[in-house]
Each structure stands twice: as structure tokens, then as C-alpha cells.
Specification:
seven-stranded mixed sheet; D-Maltodextrin-Binding Protein, domain 2; about 20% strand; alpha/beta
Length: about 325
């Protein structure tokens, strides 16, 4: 009787852990590249890590790296400095093709789960800056006090791309008497509040805490991207047309035309299939916990997370196996 009881406990524990046979008895280490603390991606990473810890043996190691953002994470994963990372469908395409932010093809990258949210490229300006439309950023560039996240981030590339479409560079702004600052969100928020910065270009999620704080502390406007700019951003850089819905932030009383892309969890081709399968399964089956951590993940739909247009990379076989088991991927 005692032997049967012990066996039953072992079966229950094994079922709760759900570790694929090929991983059993092996030390499991997962590193998830995200972004700095306070950002949506860091919260995403922590939420994923908590879900994974519950699905893994007690001795498994799950670490969230507070680096390196939309462009840099693909490089960290490619270099083996992380075995998973948060990226964008857009920058995944760039990495796969070795263009724009990447000087070589990172063709070892693979997708795990896409369409986790929608990031919008936002142009937020102080109401007293005198910028009635996007074209004013060029025409009045001597008055432009531009702020964005650090160089190399998805936000900074968004700012760079918009200026390029408008026919200017950061140096053009500075030469005309304007200014350009690359810093974290706390400084962007205070800079907009005290007037040192009058324009912030960044990629944001619905309910983004820093943009919400900015909109409540300062009288701001969200400039729409004109149709020709949207078309050029799509043609030249592969951005997808998006609309920020009215009411997303204080002062946004109507939809704002822009471009954007979803977050993607990525890995490397040489990461074991069983590990990727386990990560995919855990993320897909813990949506409620992820949304509880950050409502930006409410758009995540596991049944479509495999779709190429939401991933921007070839799917890892371990992830594909899970989606096929569910009947979502044929």
C-alpha cells in the first residue's frame, strides 16, 4: 500500500511538472532577453518566467535579462547569450535578411510565439510646441526637442525611420538649432513635463504606463502619420499600418493613424526541441496569468501565434510541434 502511495505521488508530481522525457534528469536553464525594469517587456519576461518556474523542476534556472530591446535581443539570442528573447516581427524580418539594424543575416533565429500584443509607433508632442502635423517636425526642426529611447532600441529606430521618410537626420535637427536626446522613460516623462523635450517618438503598447503618465502630467497631442508616410514606412521598412484607438490615453479623443508590429518570443535553431516545446506550451496555456501581469498581452491569441506574418521568422520545430498537437497548425 505504501509503495502504491509513493508511486501515485510521483505520478502527480511528474504530471504537474510536465517535463518532456528528453529533458528529464537534465539541468534546465532558460534565459529570456527583455528590456530594462519598468518597461512592458521586462514585465512580460517576469510573467513568463513565473509561469515556467511552475512547469519546471525545482532546480531549473529561469532568468530574465534586463536587456537589450527590440533590435538587440535578436543579437543576444543569435550569439548564445540568451536562449529566448522578446523581439518584434518587424525587426525579426530585418535580422533574417541582414538589413537596416543588422549588418549580417541572423538566419539561426527561430520563432516561438508571435502576435503577443500590438506596439504602435507614437509621435507625442507638447501642445505648446507648435507642431500641428508631422510635416512641422521638418519645417520647424530648429524648435524640435526630440526624445526617444537609447540608440539601437525599437523606439529609436522608429524615430530614425520617421525622420528619414521626412527627409532629415538627427544631425539636421541639431544643425538647425533643435536637440535630440536618447534616454529612458523616466527622463522622457520629466523632460516633457518641464519642457526640455517637446516631442517623443517611441513604440508603445495600449495603457503604456510612461505614456499614460506623460499624458496626465502634460498637455500633449498624438500626431497621426499621413497616408503617404504610412505607405513609405511600409514600403521601405516593412512596418504595418495600425490605428491607435481613441481613448487609449488622456487627450486621445479620436483614432490616430500610425504603424506598428507585434511582440514575438524568439529562440535559436539549436535550442533543443523539447525545451522549446515546453516553453511554447507553458506560454500558450498561461495566457490569463500573462494578462494579469500586463494587459498589453490581452491581444495574445495562442491559436494564431504560429502565423508567419505575426512571427517574421521560420518557426522552431519544437514550437511547431505544439501548435500541430493543438490542431492550429496543419
Amino acid at each position: 500500500m505504501r509503495r502504491m502511495l509513493v508511486l501515485l505521488v510521483m505520478i502527480i508530481v511528474a504530471g504537474a511538472i510536465r517535463v518532456p522525457g528528453a529533458l528529464a534528469g537534465q539541468p534546465v536553464e532558460i534565459t529570456i532577453a527583455s528590456l530594462s525594469p519598468g518597461t512592458a517587456w521586462y514585465v512580460y519576461g517576469v510573467a513568463m518566467a513565473e509561469a515556467l518556474k511552475k512547469a519546471l523542476p525545482a532546480d531549473a534556472k529561469v532568468e530574465v535579462l534586463p536587456q537589450a530591446g527590440g533590435v538587440g535581443n535578436a543579437k543576444l539570442v543569435a550569439q548564445g547569450k540568451a536562449n529566448f528573447g522578446l523581439s518584434f516581427s518587424l525587426t525579426n524580418q530585418w535580422a533574417l535578411q541582414g538589413k537596416h539594424a543588422y549588418d549580417k543575416k541572423l538566419d539561426m533565429l527561430r520563432g516561438v510565439a508571435g502576435g503577443m500584443d500590438t506596439y504602435y509607433l507614437s509621435v507625442t508632442v507638447r501642445a505648446d510646441a507648435g507642431f500641428a502635423g508631422l510635416a512641422d517636425l521638418k519645417e520647424k526642426r530648429g524648435k524640435l526637442a526630440l526624445g526617444s529611447l537609447p540608440v539601437g532600441s525599437g523606439s529609436e529606430y522608429g524615430a530614425r525611420n520617421i525622420l528619414e521618410i521626412l527627409g532629415m537626420t538627427y544631425d539636421d535637427v541639431r544643425k538647425a538649432g533643435g536637440s535630440v536626446a536618447f534616454t529612458g522613460y523616466p527622463n522622457l516623462v520629466t523632460g516633457m513635463k518641464d519642457g526640455r523635450i517637446n516631442t517623443v517618438i517611441s513604440v508603445i503598447t495600449p495603457g503604456h504606463p510612461s505614456i499614460r503618465e506623460m499624458s496626465l502630467q502634460s498637455d500633449v497631442r498624438f500626431l497621426p502619420l499621413p497616408p503617404d508616410v504610412v505607405a513609405k514606412m511600409r514600403e521601405q521598412f516593412n512596418y504595418a499600418p495600425q490605428n491607435m484607438p481613441a481613448g487609449m490615453f488622456h487627450g486621445m479623443d479620436k483614432d490616430v493613424s500610425t504603424v506598428g508590429y507585434p511582440t514575438v518570443l524568439i529562440t535559436r535553431a539549436d535550442v533543443p526541441d523539447d525545451l522549446v516545446y515546453l516553453v511554447t506550451k507553458t506560454i500558450a496555456e498561461n495566457k490569463a496569468a500573462l494578462v494579469a501581469a500586463h494587459k498589453g498581452l490581452s491581444q495574445f491569441e495562442p491559436s494564431t501565434a504560429w502565423k508567419p506574418e505575426l512571427v517574421g521568422l521560420p518557426l522552431h520545430p519544437g514550437a511547431a510541434r505544439y501548435y500541430r498537437e493543438k490542431g492550429w497548425l496543419k
